[in-house]
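HUMAN: You are asked to prepare a plain-text protein record giving the amino acid sequence and the C-alpha cells, both parts labelled.

ASSISTANT:
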Amino acid sequence: MSVSFHPPPRRLLIRGVNWLGDAVMTTPALLRLREKFPGAHITLLTPEKLADLWKNHPAINETISVAADENVFSIGKKLRAGEFDRALVLPNSPRSAIETWLAGIPQRTGYARPWRNFFLTQSIAPRAAAVKMRKRSEAETRRLVSQQPAASSQQPEVPSAAHQIYEYLNLAAALGANPEPLPPRLFVTAEEVEAVKKKFGLEKISAPVFGLNPGAEYGPAKRWPQEKFIAAAQEIQRRTNCTWILFGGKGDVELTTRITREIQHPASSIQHLNLAGKTTLRELMSLLKICRGLLTNDTGPMHVAAALGTPVVVPFGSTSPELTAPGLPGDARNHLLKSDAPCSPCFLRECPIDFRCMNGISVERVTAAVIEGLQP
C-alpha cells in the first residue's frame, strides 16, 4: 500500500491500546510511523497505567494520559487543545473512535467496525490474514478431546501474518508507513538500571539473575501450575546457582510468597527476591532488562521482557503463540512451549476439563529451554 499526504501530518495523534502486552505489540507500527514522518509531532493517547511505558521511546514525542474513570467528553476536550491534524485509532472499540471525533481532528483512521465507522474519515477493511481469538464452548472442548489424536491432526495452521503486530502495522500502512515487521522495542536507560540494582541490592550479584512471573491477570487457564514453576526453578537454581527475581502484581503476592519460600534452600547463601507488587512499571522494565531470561506465563511482562531484549520461556495453553507471541514472530531467542492438547488454544479464562494443555508441558522441557537460553 502506497499512500502520500501533501502536506504530511504536522501533529499526529495515536489512540493507544489499553493493555500492557497489546501496547508492546504496537511498537513496530509506531516505529514505522516515526520512520515515515520524521518531522511530525507524534502524541500517544494512553491509559494512565501505561504512560510510563513510553518514557524515552523514540517513536513518541509526548503522551496524554487517560484516567480509568475519565469520560469521552473530557478526553475529547483535552485532545482538542492539541490541534491535531490526523489521528490513527489503534483499538477497535466505538469509544476510541468517538474520542477523536469529539476532539475535532479532521482526519481519523481506524479499522472498520460496527457502531463506529461514522466517527472515522478513513475506515480500513479487516485484513484477510487476521484470525479472531474465538473462545471454545465446553461442548466443543470435550468433543475435540474425545476425538484425539484425530482432532490434533485436523487443527488448521495459523499463518505467520496472523500475529497481532501485523494488525497495527496494517493501520500504519494506511498512512503510508512501511508495513514490514520490526521487533517490538522498549527502552530503559543505564541510569534506570543502576538505580534498581541499588534499590533492590543487586549490585554485587555475580551469578545469573533470572526472572519468574507465575501469575496471569486474565485467569487460571493461562497459568502453568504452581508446583511446576517451583520444580523448574529449583532445578534451574541447582544447575546455574542463579538468583531468582519473582514478579507479579499485588494480586500475585500470596502466590509468589509461597513459591519464594519453596525455592529458597535453607543452606544457600543466595537470597531470591520476591518483588511482586513492589515495583513501578519503569522499575519492572529495568529489572527485566537485568535478567538473563524470564520464565513466565503469557502476560504483559512477557512482552515487555522480549521488547527489552531479554529471552523468555513461556508455557502456552489457552492462548496462541501464533497470534500473540512475544518479540518478532519466529525469534529463536524466545522459547514458546505447547502441549499436543487438541483443544488448545481455547481462549477461556478457566479450563472446563482437566487442564491438559498446561499439564502436558513438563518441567524438564521448561528447564531445558531456560538453560539453553544461557548459551552464547
In short: The mean pLDDT is 92. DSSP finds 15 helices and twelve strands in the chain.
